[in-house]
Amino acid sequence: MQILVRDNNIEQALKVLKKRMQREGIFREMKQRKAYEKPSERRVREKAEAVRRARKAARKVAQREGLIPMKPRKPRADRSPSMPR
Fold this sequence. Notes:
Distance between the termini: 25 Å
Order of helices and strands: HHH
Radius of gyration: 19 Å
Structural class: mainly alpha
Shape: flat
Number of helices: 3
Oligomer: single chain
Number of strands: 0
Helix content: 55-70%
């Protein structure tokens, strides 16, 4: 993983790095590897994660087909359209 630091802005680069690590699941994996996990506990956890993923996928399909109303998106209050990026 590589993060570019622009204009010596370390704080912004760290923020981007943390966000990418969160998205990749690195923090979750580090927390899991902190202590030994018995094989039976691992199977239970992986099964629960698979069920969660399947439910999420089914919910997305149902939303696309119009069976479930989609969540309304909240407009971002911290950035107005007239401000330059």
